[in-house]
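F.,

This is the one I mentioned.
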């Protein structure tokens, strides 16, 4: 009888120990998942990217029919994607229009991404559509908004600490009456002067340009956002290792190129102390300001990979935002 009771106690002890080990294992796996939670996977929508790019790839110098068509398309697309839309019309010889879409327009802080949608009027490049010079960056921003749509509408809108702003500048290119090769940047200067979005609310202004040519490399241009640039490089490596990128050379380099930079719409923000990132290669594409800057000469692996990297970066920035986030030089 005593032996039987001892066997029951022993079995009970082993059962209890097994249950404890089971719960310890479950807790370990849960904690491990929290610590090494995999990168969020978002479904690529290449059909949307291609359709968007097709709508933008047309001659669109300020005042042309193509320009007004692209402007209206940007506004309609942002509205359909759930953004609060604004258009700022101003004149400087001719009429210009900046376009902005925001999620959480009343937020005290914003991540701002921008590019220009106009093309230069080139008499020596009939049919110039500026694929790398504006069209691809515009398409990337709209596609990012489309593929992040559920997160932006269902989760970000519940937050009060951070908002997202997408800005499409007009007047980036000089008009025929302007001095040759002048950096007029009418749209971005207007945006900063009028504070279309309060400058103190912009945590980082990220300008995209000259994206889509082959053999491009992206380096950090400003020390204040070097950490964000490095995060871009890590995201690219993570996406590459998980098989989410197209076969392509490494785009982002953990290198500082703080002494040179191509002029672009981030300059007015930089002058006002807003932290900036310039997502542009270290040199102009070979097709720059020629009729060859078209869809046929785009390096699609670069376009697709930049699209995936930027989308993941925007998601991570918004999702991990807290009140201590700041990159301001004067902070």
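My design for it:
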């Amino acid at each position: 009888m005593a032996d039987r009771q001892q066997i029951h106690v022993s079995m009970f002890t082993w059962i209890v120990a097994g249950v404890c080990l089971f719960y310890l294992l479950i807790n370990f796996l849960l904690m491990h998942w929290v610590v090494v939670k995999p990168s969020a996977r978002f479904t690529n929508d290449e059909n949307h990217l291609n359709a968007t790019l097709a709508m933008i790839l047309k001659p669109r110098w300020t005042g042309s029919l193509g320009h007004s068509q692209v402007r209206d398309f940007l506004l309609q697309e942002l509205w359909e994607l759930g953004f609060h839309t604004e258009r700022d019309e101003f004149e400087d010889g001719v009429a210009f229009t900046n376009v902005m879409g925001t999620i959480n327009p009343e937020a005290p802080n914003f991540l701002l991404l921008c590019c220009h949608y106009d093309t230069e009027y080139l008499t020596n490049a009939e049919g110039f559509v500026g694929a790398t010079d504006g069209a691809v960056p515009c398409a990337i921003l709209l596609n990012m908004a489309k593929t992040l749509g559920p997160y932006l509408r269902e989760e970000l809108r519940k937050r009060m600490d951070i908002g997202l702003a997408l800005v499409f500048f007009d007047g980036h290119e000089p008009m025929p009456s302007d001095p040759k090769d002048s950096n007029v940047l009418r749209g971005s200067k207007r945006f900063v002067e009028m504070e279309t979005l309060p400058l103190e609310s912009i945590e980082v202004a990220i300008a995209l340009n000259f994206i889509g040519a082959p053999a491009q490399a992206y380096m950090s241009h400003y020390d204040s956002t070097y950490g964000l640039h490095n995060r871009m490089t890590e995201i690219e490596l993570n996406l590459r290792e998980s098989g989410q990128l197209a076969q392509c050379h490494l785009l982002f380099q953990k290198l500082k190129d703080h002494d040179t930079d191509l002029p672009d719409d981030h300059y007015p923000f930089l002058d006002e102390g807003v932290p900036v990132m310039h997502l542009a290669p270290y040199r102009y594409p070979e097709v720059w300001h020629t009729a060859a800057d078209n869809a046929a000469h785009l390096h699609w692996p670069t376009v697709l990979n930049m699209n995936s990297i930027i989308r993941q970066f925007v998601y991570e920035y918004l999702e991990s935002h807290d009140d201590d986030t700041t990159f301001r030089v004067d902070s």
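The chain has one domain: 48-319.

Talk soon.
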